[in-house]
Amino acid sequence: MTVGVDMGVTDPGESPAMLDLEELLATRLLVQGNSGSGKSHLLRRLLEQSAPWVQQAVIDPEGDFVTLAERFGHIVVDAERGEADLQRIAARVRQHRVSVVLNLEGLEAEQQMRAAAAFLGGLFDAERDHWYPMLVVVDEAQLFAPTAAGEFSDDARKVSLGAMTNLMCRGRKRGLAGVIATQRLAKLAKNVAAEASNFLMGRTFLDIDMMRAADLLGMERRQAEAFRDLARGHFIALGPALSRRPIPIRIGDVETQARSTSPKLMPLPEQPAEEARDLIFAPPTAEEREHEREQVQRRPAPAPMPSTNDLLARVVRERPAMTAPDAPEADPQAREAGLNAVMGEILSDPDAAFRSHAVLYQDFLVRCRIRRVPGGPPDLAEFRRRLTVARAGVDAQIAENPQWEAALRGAEGLPEDIQGVYLLFARAALEGAPCPPDGEIARICGSRSPGRARRLVQYMEQRGYIVCRNDLRGARIVALPDLGWETRAGDANAEMAPEPPTRVAEGG
Question: What span, in angstroms and rounded, lies between the C-alpha atoms of 402 and 499?
Fold first, then answer.
């Protein structure tokens, strides 16, 4: 049975623009157009016209298609749940042949990628008995199949791109027909776009996207300029389910509307400036405070992608021990002494202060293996903590002082790369030493610029961690209000003395 989906009319000619639904299920569809070209309107028209004939799943990053639920009975799946839940729901969707909208609104971009990948994976991995025909529509596909990771982690991109590739490359045999829409062909992974045999190209302005659209439609390069002149809702169609030759079509009307619409001009409210100021700067209400707390809880920061050094440390930790099975457990004191010795070797190099944590950590791991430090090396987080304390010149005597724990707690609220400066001031105050000069502060931060040191001191003072004042001779004194300590007066511009032998605190 051949089912024709009415997408609108050809332009010019006004003859019906029909899409062969069965052919679409076998050959897939790619829609491209800049923001405002009418892509979402086109997808909505396709979904509405084909809803009585085929099961549908919509990957909706902005929550625009949830309005299909009331008119056409689609089930809205809130993506704010675990990946295992999404895979289970997707399997049940295929089993019971229910049309759904996966609402990704409210998730961060990387979370959207992971949620979409989990849901598409559930559709793809369904049991063979449930491989019924399904139209899978993915709006803003460049988010889920980007050409490069960009601001996303490689792990999230690989998972999402793999799911999109399965949909477009291997989904046909499982009854899945991908319909993907994108603003930028140049941002969409080529192996995903290349699997579509039907194309609807809308208004496009960037040369690289116009050239790719013209290539896909088999048009000459000089004809690519036509994409700039297309009106909203007008597309050029090509493909076995649409037309054997490129034809312009105008998308027809839809029955449902998106929750978000194009902005319309409207007059500003008339009110005195003082009233407007009071409205803007009024203290937050109880409802607003509660909403802010809910937003923080709803949007946890995504887990950072492990760096190369983290992976290296994991390999070292998980590597089977080379000692005999009956070897005695490592002596904690011997391990601590070995780690301190390695740290001292690293910081004895004058250039160590200006190397990154990643480089120093690799050196640290190698030296630990050479020295055969028992018990294995610390992970990167512990290494950074030890390095921060060691750079501040904290020796075993200071580290064992009961008051030093307060200094460590006081530094916790600062960014990791500034904690060493706070501990440097704390160590000087605890020892009754002069305030360190800007050159020493800069070295602690891995810089040779006294100007950077002054900016860091100003940053800490603005946030109340320290208070700076000058004595009658202009020498700087730094007080630490949370600890009730202060350094002796010291010349901020003094030349740095040669570095003493590195003192590494026992216990880090």
Answer: 27
